[in-house]
Amino acid sequence: MKFFFHIATVVALVGTLATGTAIAQTSPAAPMGAMSAASDDGRTADTWLRDGDTFSIQYGVYTKHRSYSAEHVDHNRMVNLEIQSNYDRVWGADKTLFGAAVLRNSFGQPSQWVYWGQRWDVNDYVYVKVTAGLLHGYKGKYRDKIPFNKAGVAPGIIPSLGFRFKGATIETILLGGNALMFAVGYQF
């Protein structure tokens, strides 16, 4: 039940951020029906999203671990919400990424991943992503299963290879040297 609470929290947060209500507004919202002029970086007073920003949702359908353990969970039910921006890109990337995911970690514990990243488009159908962020949720006897988790939150870097057609996506996500996750999604 807690897992669905985490999903609802992430969905509510992304929905709030996407509509721009009450969070990160630099000025009061314009009266209903009024148009706000965009600033130099594409933001308006109505939303903190900028011109051309999009978002996506993903679901982790299967995880394949490198070595077998009866404790491993192969269906982690990952739900990821991500904003993809044309602004603030580095290293020649095509998009900057901001996201949050809720999932069951390899041992079935509720976990969260909050990240920033970059996406490079190889062509119209193939892309490569690298995200860096903080992972929370490895607890108890599994706390030391990920590096640097002494405080209950660990840094991580996650590369992935994705394929897209129209708005639909399929990604193969490398989880350290221990697992591959397969996810499906849609870009809005």
What features would you describe in this structure?
The chain contains one helix and eight strands; from the N terminus they run αββββββββ. By secondary structure, it is mostly beta strands. The chain has an eight-stranded antiparallel β-barrel with strand order 1-2-3-4-5-6-7-8. Strand 3 and strand 4 form a beta hairpin. The longest helix is centred in the first third of the chain and has 18 residues. 22% of the residues are buried.
- Profile the largest sheet: 8 strands, antiparallel, barrel
- The SS-based structural class is mainly beta
Q: How many whole angstroms does the radius of gyration measure?
A: 18 Å
Beta content comes to 35-45%
Query: What ranges have pLDDT less than 50 throughout 5 or more consecutive residues?
Result: 1-36
Order of helices and strands: HEEEEEEEE
Oligomeric assembly: single chain
Number of strands: 8
What do the pLDDT scores average to? 81
The N- and C-terminal alpha carbons lie at a distance of: 28 Å
Side-by-side strand order of the widest sheet: 1-2-3-4-5-6-7-8
Task: Bin the helical content.
Answer: under 10%
Shape: globular
Q: Number of helical segments?
A: 1
